[in-house]
Amino acid sequence: MTDEAPATTTKSMDDIMSLCKRRGFVYPASEIYGGINGFWDYGPLGAQLKKNLRDAWWTDVVMRGCNGKLGPDGKPVEIVPVDTCIIQNPKVWEASGHVAGFNDPMVDDKETKQRFRADHLFGMYLVRPEEGESVDQGVARLIKIINEQPFELPYGPNLSCVASNEEEAFGAFRAAMHRIKQDITRVPDAAVATSFTAETRKGEECFGVCYQVPMSFMKAHPTWIPSPFNKPDKAAALELDNRKSDSQLTEPRAFNLMFKTYIGATATEDDVAYLRPETAQGIFVNFKNVVDTTRVGVPFGIAQTGKSFRNEVTPRNFTFRSREFEQMEIEFFCHPDDAKDWYVFWRDWRMEWWQGLGLKGENLILREHDSDELAHYAKEGAGTSDIEYRFPFTAPGFGELEGIAHRTDFDLKQHEEHARAKLKYFDSTRGELAKNGQPKGEHYLPHVIEPSGGLDRGVLAILCEAYTVDESRPSPEFMKFHPRVAPIKAAVFPLVKKDGMPEKAQELHSELRQKFGHLGAIEYDEKQSIGKRYARMDEAGTPYCFTIDGDSLTDGTVTVRDRDTGEQQRMPMAGVAAFLGEKLGV
Ligand code: GAP
Predict the structure, then answer these.
(1) Strand partners of residue 400
(2) Closest by alpha carbon to 425, among 580, 272, 302, 530?
């Protein structure tokens, strides 16, 4: 991928999804039965792309210990892998807080049966300018309305979005969504944004303010439903969505996101178990096992990749919010005094890592959380941040790709109490000095820094970043994958299906397949015209195509075509493997 990442704002998610389906990256799960909401299958190209991303993470993080970057203690980073069960003893989820607290507040639209997250409903007011009123005066009037709300606006009045035409309205609406730093993918945008357009399309000037109700307020006032639904300012506000009123929405209810199942044949309430909502807990409950059975010592990390399951209220935006998805998680254990340094280390290194895979430029940002966004296990002041990507459906805003959190000793402490297990770590390198000058040692519960990434979201970001349209090419759509993640690494073609060219091409194909097959597919294709074969490979994101032609048979050279430039050059067939190896970085 080039350094100038194409703006995702100009990419169409529908076009990306259609290419994904057509070329076998992603299919709707159980499609022949009409699909199932929130579940997706990967086709041949998608499965390899996903494996390449998982492998890159595994290799760089675990096997190469952050690619050899020294930790803040000046030593190599130590990480070991585990692979733990999806179903754990249900007490694990009681201790972790998921049984009691892994809830989303949910409201149902009684008429349409649509379901929304109550805390993600956006309030929005639109007002027409009054006669002689300037924009500033109109905004001031709006801010007054907002300030009369029964809660304090958390982010100040400068979040107002003001628009005088349709285009501006949408831009301002989305920008405000982004500025209030919420996950806009959960906004019932059909309910709010469409009405916004409808009003402005009539050609009437209007001002708008949108805001999100703070979670703390929702918790304190569980039956309060945000405007426009309860319309506190009926006179001034244009009705954004007349279909909805508070009586049309149910009161918010807590909805636990964990998938329940039953173990054994009796299936009583005593047999309830849960599909894990995060892979992290499998690591925490094995902390002592790893310390006891390996030579690792604090500071060190335990890493795993694997499926997690969440019964999301509103799965949406392709694979972005699915009910079954894969995570790549590291729990890094360190002394509490060192947690801040390790947090900064991980936050910065994880950002570098995603950039190294081609997610560059203005499409990728690192965002520190505000203190009111912290999860129950995260420590105030010590830091929690998200690496966010500008997906076409969030643009100009961003969606979370990976979170880096200081989880303190929350989880180990919880498991220590609930399991009555001794999880304190004995650190012989710390503590007061004894008479012999050696440290006496210290018992403590390590703090944890957790970089937790979504594999499916990573794949989606890579797909969106790679998707490129260039109308000047024979096949205008192509995928500019970084060679490391490209599912097909190279293709070999005979120019025509005769004169000994197929045999020579198969020879080269076989050599490359044996040398590079562990990294991805090496394709052989002799069907259709050479132009069509190049176009097919461009859509699959294959970085290099090697073609055997008439000259190859006499002088032993081949042409290599570069996907991104379309340029071709001749090289000795004997040098192809070395050339490809260098390009793939092996
Ligand atoms: N152990 C911490 C944890 O699970 P999280 O922010 O809930 O934190 C971590 O999840 C990552 O998992 C997210 O950054 C995201 O990439 C991915 N993820 C979470 N929910 C997801 C969903 N419903 N669909 C796809 N990916 C999801």
Answers:
(1) 388
(2) 302
Nearest-CA residue for ligand 1 atom 10 is 452
- Find, among 267, 256, 3, the residue nearest to 105 by Cα: 256
Ranges of CATH 3.40.50.800 domains, the chain: 473-584
Q: Where in the chain is the domain with CATH 3.30.930.10?
A: 13-102+260-465
Place of tokens 């998707």: 467
**pTM for the structure as a whole:** 0.81
Tokens at 533, concatenated: 């074969």
Q: Which residues contact 19 (CB under 8 A, 6 or more apart)?
A: 25, 467, 477, 479, 539
- Tell me the fold of 13-102+260-465: BirA Bifunctional Protein; domain 2 (3.30.930)
* Burial status of residue 411 (CB atoms within 10 A of its CB: 0-12, 13-18, 19 or more): buried
Q: What is the DSSP letter of 466?
A: H
| Cβ atoms within 10 Å of 325's Cβ, excluding its own | 21
pLDDT confidence band for 360 (50 / 70 / 90): confident
* Ligand 1: lining residues by beta carbon, under 6 Å: 278, 280, 310, 312, 321-322, 325, 327, 329, 400-403, 450, 452-454, 456-457
Sign of the torsion formed by the C-alpha atoms of 450, 455, 459 and 464: negative
Q: Which residue has the higher pLDDT, 67 or 152?
A: 67
Give the whole-angstrom CA distance, residue 78 versus residue 332. Answer: 9
Name the residue of 302, 323, 400 whose CB sits within 8 Å of the most ligand 1 atoms, as the mutation to test its pocket.
Answer: 400
Q: Three-class SS of residue 566?
A: coil
Give me the torsion for CA of 176, 182, 186, 190, rounded to 10°. Answer: -10
pLDDT tens digit sequence for 302-312: 999 999 999 98
Q: pLDDT-derived band of residue 368, with 50, 70 and 90 as boundaries? A: confident
- Give the rounded percent of residues in the chain with a pLDDT score beyond 90: 64
**501-516 and 576-584 are packed helices; what angle lies between their axes, rounded to 10 degrees?**
40
Answer yes or no: are the C-beta atoms of 332 and 300 closer than 8 Å.
yes
Identity of the amino acid at 265 = A
Q: Which residue's CA is the nearest one to ligand 1's atom 7? A: 278
Three-class DSSP category at 276 = coil
Q: How far is CA 133 from CA 44, 124, 130, in A?
A: 60, 20, 5
CB 504 within 8 A of CB 553: yes
Which residues on adjacent β-strands are paired with residue 478? 468
Atom of ligand 1 nearest to the CA of 279: 1
Domain with residues 473-584, CATH architecture: 3-Layer(aba) Sandwich (3.40)
CB contact at 8 A, 458 and 401: yes
The residue assigned the tokens 């009409």 is 34
**404 with 385: CB under 8 angstroms?**
yes
Reference 415, options 448, 451, 441; nearest CA is: 448
Alpha-carbon dihedral 422, 426, 431, 436, rounded to 10 degrees: 130
Buried b (16+ CB within 10 A) or exposed e, 525-560: bbeeebeebbbbbbbbbbbbbbbbbeebeeeebbbb
Unique residue bearing structure tokens 């004169």: 499
